Amino acid sequence: MFKLSQDNDNESTSSDLGAIVLEKDPEVKEPPSYQVVLINDDYTPMEFVVFVLQTVFGHNHEKSTEIMMIVHTKGKGVCGIFSKEIAEMMSYEVNTMAKDHGHPLLSEIEPLTD
Ligand code: TYC
Questions:
Q1: Does 26-111 carry CATH code 2.40.10.220?
Q2: Rounded-to-integer distance, Cα 114 and Cα 108, Å
Q3: pLDDT for 74-108, tens place per residue?
Q4: Ligand 1: which atom is nearest the Cα of residue 77?
Q5: How far does the centroid of ligand 1 lie from the alpha carbon of residue 14, in Å?
Q6: Out of 23, 54, 64, 89, which residue is the most buried by the measure of CB atoms under 10 Å away?
């Protein structure tokens, strides 16, 4: 997007006073978002998945149960959408918690294209 503007900066010389210049808007781009996705498996107890969703993502019990059941029935489900760094931290936390408790539960992150 271009905008017409009066060139009134302090650097003006008598020759460019009052000149009309074309100014380009700075490109303002949002950083890309990533979703943390939980993967289904046959062994992790449902209650543990609900516990992880509450603890790591701050979802309430009802929302956590809803996400867990989506993963259980469809194979995958979105836990939340974050910046890349936060998504990586969340996913690492889920995977570490699962490992520490001896469960195969896994999460991964996926970039969102806008
Ligand atoms: N499928 C598991 C079970 O029947 C429950 C489960 C849900 C496991 C979601 C992982 O990401 C998961 N106990």
A1: no
A2: 19
A3: 999 999 999 999 999 999 999 999 999 999 999 99
A4: 11
A5: 74
A6: 64
